[in-house]
Amino acid sequence: MNQAEKISLISKSYTIDSIGVSVATETKKSVYAIKSNINQSEFYEAGQQGLKPYGAYAVRITEYNGEDEIEVGTKRLTVYRTYTRTDGRVELYATDRKGQK
Fold it and tell me: Would 66 be classed as within a structural domain?
């Protein structure tokens, strides 16, 4: 059985500063997630979009608010797809952020 690991859900809010520039503020929320491996068909479908899946993380649906980035350890990932399960969790399919190796 997969064990839960701590990840951070990253949300962003934007404000306009005094000279009219949009400034992003990040907020991280730590949650427990169960990591699962990416199956072959998911890997293929993501590859068709130019993505290389890193993993899928299942978190409680009540903890997820549409965040499009997560942090696992020191690695920042982009959520490219979600899937709502029937057990009260949502799976976050994540890939390396664009521009990172």
Answer: yes
